Amino acid sequence: QSTLRKKLLDAFTEHEGEYLSGQYLADLIGCSRTAVWKHIEDLRHEGFELEAIRRKGYRIVKAPDLVTANEIRLGLKTSIIGQEIHYHETVDSTQKIAHRLGFENVPEGTVVVADEQVGGRGRMNRPWHSAKGTGVWMSIILRPSIPLPKAPQLTLLTAVAVVQAIGDCTELEPHIKWPNDILINGKKVTGILTELQAEADQIHSVIIGIGINVNQQKSDYPPELQSIATSLAIEKGEFVNRAELIQAVFTRLEKLYALYLEKGFLPIKLLWESYAISIGKKITARTLSGNLTGKALGITDDGVLMLEDDQGTIHQIYSADIEI
Ligand code: BT5
């Protein structure tokens, strides 16, 4: 059933805007014309707008703002990221499901996406507000053969991909705050959480959780988030299609990941620095072992933050919350 559906949506993707006849689709996906018609009706029920013209066939006019596998697949041009999509309307956390799938050896690039999370989490188990139908809540499984200490580079790589994807879809220009926050006008629009499954020093899976605030209005946030969180719709002043944004993230991520595997972290680091806000500024890093204040010098070739304190000592920071 779902492979038929994938073939059908791939055909509409390949012939974007064209009419495809029932017979053509039936031949292509290997079923009867009645079965094609049934699939088309199912798409309609899911909110797709389809035009049907006698002797010409079917055409997708508009896809609904859902983040189901169908929705994401229509128009998707990647070859690794998002080839397998696990959609859930409501989940505790997409990270948890992705961790399970990671152990089950699903293909690299598999994505878990949800319309709502009731137990979304950030770093150190902090809550991540993930209201229904308003954002992109997803976890992507990668399996790079890199040494364990390099895994945090993937957080920075993902941040670059998300900044570029937001730019592609909205023309907004977000900035990155080391290591995992994406901000617009000083407010957080995206958080990234990278977790590992490893045995000894061998990475089995990297689970990259991405939360993007897309169509929330200010009043959708609880009071404690209203002054620190924003959304693409708040910043742009109009609604943004979530599935298109997800596709853009997949496309950007796939390109950067290939570049990273081929050329290493350096080209990613240069891009990251071009989007970073904290570099050169006085910051306070809150770490588990205490606070450090000083100038952010930049990141090392491994993606570690370098901070120079007032005495001129340079500290390497592996994990912290940063205040600018
Ligand atoms: C993060 O943590 O920023 C990583 C967030 C990752 C969320 C994704 S969604 C898909 C996947 N499934 C999950 O369960 N998680 C991942 P951190 O840097 O620790 O920031 C957490 C802090 O951000 C909270 O303590 C709040 O102050 C704030 N916050 C919570 N929800 C927010 C939201 N929707 N927008 C902006 N800020 C938020």
From TrEMBL:
<dbReference type="InterPro" id="IPR003142">
    <property type="entry name" value="BPL_C"/>
</dbReference>
<dbReference type="GO" id="GO:0004077">
    <property type="term" value="F:biotin--[biotin carboxyl-carrier protein] ligase activity"/>
</dbReference>
<dbReference type="Pfam" id="PF03099">
    <property type="entry name" value="BPL_LplA_LipB"/>
</dbReference>
<dbReference type="GO" id="GO:0005737">
    <property type="term" value="C:cytoplasm"/>
</dbReference>
<dbReference type="GO" id="GO:0003677">
    <property type="term" value="F:DNA binding"/>
</dbReference>
<keyword id="KW-0092">Biotin</keyword>
<dbReference type="InterPro" id="IPR004143">
    <property type="entry name" value="BPL_LPL_catalytic"/>
</dbReference>
<dbReference type="GO" id="GO:0005524">
    <property type="term" value="F:ATP binding"/>
</dbReference>
<dbReference type="InterPro" id="IPR045864">
    <property type="entry name" value="aa-tRNA-synth_II/BPL/LPL"/>
</dbReference>
<dbReference type="InterPro" id="IPR013196">
    <property type="entry name" value="HTH_11"/>
</dbReference>
<feature type="binding site">
    <location>
        <begin position="121"/>
        <end position="123"/>
    </location>
    <ligand>
        <name>biotin</name>
    </ligand>
</feature>
<keyword id="KW-0436">Ligase</keyword>
<dbReference type="Pfam" id="PF02237">
    <property type="entry name" value="BPL_C"/>
</dbReference>
<keyword id="KW-0804">Transcription</keyword>
<dbReference type="InterPro" id="IPR004408">
    <property type="entry name" value="Biotin_CoA_COase_ligase"/>
</dbReference>
<dbReference type="GO" id="GO:0009249">
    <property type="term" value="P:protein lipoylation"/>
</dbReference>
<dbReference type="InterPro" id="IPR030855">
    <property type="entry name" value="Bifunct_BirA"/>
</dbReference>
<keyword id="KW-0678">Repressor</keyword>
<comment type="function">
    <text>Acts both as a biotin--[acetyl-CoA-carboxylase] ligase and a repressor.</text>
</comment>
<dbReference type="InterPro" id="IPR036390">
    <property type="entry name" value="WH_DNA-bd_sf"/>
</dbReference>
<feature type="DNA-binding region" description="H-T-H motif">
    <location>
        <begin position="22"/>
        <end position="41"/>
    </location>
</feature>
<dbReference type="GO" id="GO:0016740">
    <property type="term" value="F:transferase activity"/>
</dbReference>
<comment type="similarity">
    <text>Belongs to the biotin--protein ligase family.</text>
</comment>
<dbReference type="Pfam" id="PF08279">
    <property type="entry name" value="HTH_11"/>
</dbReference>
<keyword id="KW-0238">DNA-binding</keyword>
<dbReference type="InterPro" id="IPR036388">
    <property type="entry name" value="WH-like_DNA-bd_sf"/>
</dbReference>
<keyword id="KW-0547">Nucleotide-binding</keyword>
<feature type="binding site">
    <location>
        <position position="117"/>
    </location>
    <ligand>
        <name>biotin</name>
    </ligand>
</feature>
<dbReference type="GO" id="GO:0006355">
    <property type="term" value="P:regulation of DNA-templated transcription"/>
</dbReference>
<feature type="domain" description="BPL/LPL catalytic">
    <location>
        <begin position="74"/>
        <end position="261"/>
    </location>
</feature>
<feature type="binding site">
    <location>
        <position position="188"/>
    </location>
    <ligand>
        <name>biotin</name>
    </ligand>
</feature>
<dbReference type="InterPro" id="IPR008988">
    <property type="entry name" value="Transcriptional_repressor_C"/>
</dbReference>
<keyword id="KW-0067">ATP-binding</keyword>
<protein>
    <recommendedName>
        <fullName>Bifunctional ligase/repressor BirA</fullName>
        <ecNumber>6.3.4.15</ecNumber>
    </recommendedName>
</protein>
<keyword id="KW-0805">Transcription regulation</keyword>
